[in-house]
Design goal:
27% helix, four-stranded antiparallel β-sheet, six-stranded mixed β-sheet, 5 helices
């Protein structure tokens, strides 16, 4: 086969592979009392109870069809005059919860790292249930009664940290109930098409250039 044609074929395959993996925000790690689970509680129909904070992915790489309200992390009880993430913003969603398996007050803490910067938090069912159609369209459970607490109860805390604002330090506590928190992150920018094409082309032609250089070296050695 013509080396040029072969190189173009390899480049085309490389571009296809690169383009098939768009940049989606995701939970990429964590420490502390944390379990990252595969199946969303909304789709299970219940939220499993453990002594750890649990986290799962919801919809990724979504363009918001409307404005959505986000909580004030300094006052979970505040449900009016809230900030919003604007319609048309491309986001990903993740859900963090603590379901106390005991009959007494219990708490857990964790640090969770996301691929994208955190744009906002939803710490009350009055905020995250009305957006199930956006972030959990396959939900078979649409009820959630737990709310994040303010004093005089033990305060639930969620703090955004990290150089890129992509780390969440969270402490949740409850008495035989379930506390939930939706985390909305920014979708990292996808590489420009020309960048992908250039990378694919380089991947395709690199082996051919190496082979040509090797043949040239062999010819030079024979002359010597």
């Amino acid at each position: 086969m013509n080396p040029l044609v072969k190189g173009l074929q390899i480049a085309t395959v490389s571009v296809a592979v690169l383009a098939a993996h768009p940049a989606d925000a995701a939970i990429i790690g964590g420490t502390g009392q944390l379990e990252i689970v595969d199946t969303p509680g909304w789709e299970l129909g219940y939220f499993p109870r453990t002594t750890s904070i649990q986290a799962f992915e919801e919809e990724q790489n979504v363009v918001l069809p409307r404005d959505i309200q986000i909580s004030d992390p300094t006052n979970w009880d505040r449900l009016f005059d809230l900030d919003v993430i604007k319609e048309g913003t491309r986001v990903s969603s993740h859900f963090v919860y603590f379901a106390n398996p005991t009959r007494g007050r219990l708490g857990a803490s964790a640090t969770i790292t996301f691929d994208g910067s955190i744009l906002g938090l939803m710490g009350d069912p009055a905020l995250f249930l009305p957006t199930l159609d956006i972030f959990a369209p396959n939900a078979i459970r649409d009820r959630f009664t737990g709310t994040l607490d303010e004093p005089p109860l033990t305060r639930d805390v969620a703090t955004i940290t990290g150089d890129k604002g992509n780390v969440l330090e969270v402490f949740l506590s409850t008495t035989s109930g379930t506390d939930g928190l939706r985390v909305i992150t920014q979708v990292p920018a996808a590489p420009e098409p020309l960048t992908i094409l250039g990378t694919g082309t380089a991947l395709g032609f690199a082996p051919l250039l190496k082979r040509a250089y090797s043949k040239k070296q062999k010819k030079n050695n024979k002359k010597d």
